[in-house]
Specification:
The protein is an all-beta fold. Helix content is 0%, strand content 47%.
Length: 116
């Protein structure tokens, strides 16, 4: 069982930056692949980035590659998403979960709005 709480979202202008955090509770955190996901209104939830248990294998969606950085601190049971050069199309609710996601673990997420 991994319980997840996202934070760090907000309103930012195009070109700005935000750092999202996901605090996890559960002894299995350090041995699972974690992912950041996002969902815009009327659209399917999509995988943004994922990171392996040890942090050595990382994958990004093509739409965010070069702008976003996923990282994790297993000592703090936390995964991060640094988002730079934000675009209006990045506007969505951002969620964290294991990868592949556990359907029962989806929470409220954190809202990211990119607008001028």
């Amino acid at each position: 069982q991994v319980q997840l709480v996202e934070s760090g979202g907000g309103l930012v202008q195009p070109g700005g930056s935000l750092r999202l955090s996901c605090a996890a509770s559960g002894s299995i955190f350090s041995i699972v692949t974690m992912g950041w996901y996002r969902q815009a209104p009327g659209k399917q939830r999509e995988l943004v980035a994922r990171i392996s248990s040890g942090g050595s294998t990382i994958n990004y969606a093509g739409s965010v590659k070069g702008r976003f950085t996923i990282s994790r601190d297993n000592g703090k049971d936390t995964v991060y998403l640094q988002m730079n050069s934000l675009k209006p199309e990045d506007t969505a609710v951002y969620y964290c979960n294991i990868y592949p996601p556990r359907e029962s673990s989806w929470g409220q997420g954190t809202q990211v709005t990119v607008s001028s």
